[in-house]
């Protein structure tokens, strides 16, 4: 494990950014990498609004095999360009151990999606990679099961695991999933790992994303991963729940204020990229 990723007491460091403790991490970007223009527009928008990291999926878990499943390798290439142009660390999902090497070429944080939380072969391999992991809670998983899944990663010597509550399946059908906010303080009682919230996939619709984000920050989450798109109405995937990039900076301001309630400060990426680096 290199210096940037080593375990530091109450928190971790990821690509030079502290996470956990008194820090609040805001990971933002589109559900899916769709095109060069959409990816770079989203990356610039969330960067200038003060986000900590950029998210975007190149490999997408979809309920129907007929839905768009991501640009794959080309998507990873676009994420690499977004990183080069903004300096934002990249969070992207790996669904299959066969794709892991390619994902590791660009990901500062490897996302394990809700549907793969108990894919033990994948957990073991990302554990062995030593790269920070964002582990999402399964749709119907208990906190014990989530923590056992995290153990698969830490058992390989990789302590850089971020837990993510993203809504669970309950009897309620008025919204996509039920955001389990109680999970945040309870996970914090039971582990030193940072705990973040995904309000987008829980809500399923844009109007609910900000109230859930404010609640997550107020209840002590160490950060949020949120979907943002330059043109949500035309998004290929998860448009109805995506925030509009044009108004994202207002959202960031209000979420930062909510994070301050629990003594946390937003970590903003300050990396400056030179034109020379882009040309190289
Ligand atoms: C995602 O983050 O794009 C995603 C598919 O999330 P989840 O695995 O929580 O459904
Ligand atoms: Mn999505």
Protein described:
By secondary structure, the protein is of the alpha/beta class. It is 35% helix and 18% strand. It has helices at 36-49, 73-86, 100-104, 120-129, 143-154, 183-190, 199-203, 206-218, 248-260, 275-279; strands at residues 7-8, 11-14, 17-20, 23-29, 53-55, 90-93, 109-112, 133-136, 161-165, 195-197, 223-229, 243-244, 265-266. Helix 1 packs parallel to helix 2 (73-86) and helix 4 (120-129) packs across helix 5 (143-154). The two termini are 27 Å apart. Manganese (II) ion binds at residues 31, 201, 227, 237-238.
What structural class do you assign from the helix and strand content?
Answer: alpha/beta
Report the span from N to C terminus. Answer: 27 Å
Helix coverage percent of residues? 25-40%
| Helix-strand pattern | EEEEHEHEHEHEHEHEHHEEHEH
- Please state roughly what percent of the residues sit in beta strands, choosing from under 5%, 5-15%, 15-25%, 25-35%, 35-45% or over 45%: 15-25%
How many helix segments? 10
Annotation, overall tally of beta strands: 13
Largest sheet: 8 strands, parallel, barrel
Bound molecules: phosphoenolpyruvate, manganese (II) ion
Shape field: globular
Strand order of the largest sheet: 4-5-6-7-8-9-10-11
Radius of gyration: 17 Å
Mean pLDDT: 93
Name the poorly predicted regions: 1-9, 272-276
Secondary structure blueprint with pairings:
Blueprint: E1 7-8, E2 11-14, E3 17-20, E4 23-29, H1 36-49, E5 53-55, H2 73-86, E6 90-93, H3 100-104, E7 109-112, H4 120-129, E8 133-136, H5 143-154, E9 161-165, H6 183-190, E10 195-197, H7 199-203, H8 206-218, E11 223-229, E12 243-244, H9 248-260, E13 265-266, H10 275-279
Parallel strand pairs: 4-5, 4-11, 4-13, 5-6, 6-7, 7-8, 8-9, 9-10, 10-11, 11-12
Antiparallel strand pairs: 1-2, 2-3
Helix pairs in contact: 1-2, 1-9, 4-5, 8-9
Bound molecules: phosphoenolpyruvate (PEP) and manganese (II) ion (MN).
